[in-house]
Amino acid sequence: MAGKAGTVYIKADRNVEVAKTSVMIGDVLKIECTDPAMLARIRSIHLLTFHHPDDKRQRRTVVSLLKVIQKIHEIYPDAAVENIGETDFIVTYEEQDGKGGIIHGVKIVAVVLISFFGAAFSTMAFNNDVGVTRMFGQVYELLTGTKSDGFTILEFTYCIGIVIGILTFFNHFGKKRLSVDPTPMEVEMRLYENDIQTTLVETYSRKEKELDVGEKHMSGTTGI
Predict the structure, then answer these.
(1) DSSP code for 211
(2) What is the pTM of this model?
(3) How would you classify the pairing of strands 46-50 and 22-24?
(4) Which of 19, 51, 127, 208 is 20 to 30 A from residue 178's alpha carbon, by CA?
(5) How far apart are CA 19 and CA 118, in angstroms?
(6) How far apart are CA 197 and CA 174, in angstroms?
(7) Where in this chain does the record put each Stage V sporulation protein AA domain (predicted)?
């Protein structure tokens, strides 16, 4: 096909999921170009194929943006490609079969129970370590002159304070937020995801399994 001059802007997210084994550039990248025909053609360029999607170890690969640019230049050798996103990105194949509803529900219940009992155990262990019950008893006896029976206004307000503190710290109650800021849990999850993605990219690069220029074939996937 004859080359055509023009500027193509491409943007890749760090991690992209696809639902089909044959992946086109338009499936994993955001692309902008002033020529609609050129834009449509670039989006339909084949990038890679997952040959063994039944093997979960071969459902993921890392792609260098240089490979994408090479694919574009094979069709449009005079095109100027401007990258405004990631230089390396992860492509993961995920089947969208709609199954696993019950399993998904069981996982949610399991996580809720583990979080609830884990938090309760941690709170009780902390209180025992610092002797909160004994301290409250001493404070109550000092203020009232009577011995504490273990359940006084101090314990009651302490329980309410823990609930208010948790809601304030996590900035979340049910589906409602106390502010527009991301919750600490969301921040930690994003940091964890970024660490995982960075590790995957570096691991594939060091093992030379990254789909890059000059790489025609990899285990489980191909760029041909």
Answers:
(1) B
(2) 0.67
(3) antiparallel
(4) 127
(5) 36
(6) 29
(7) 7-96
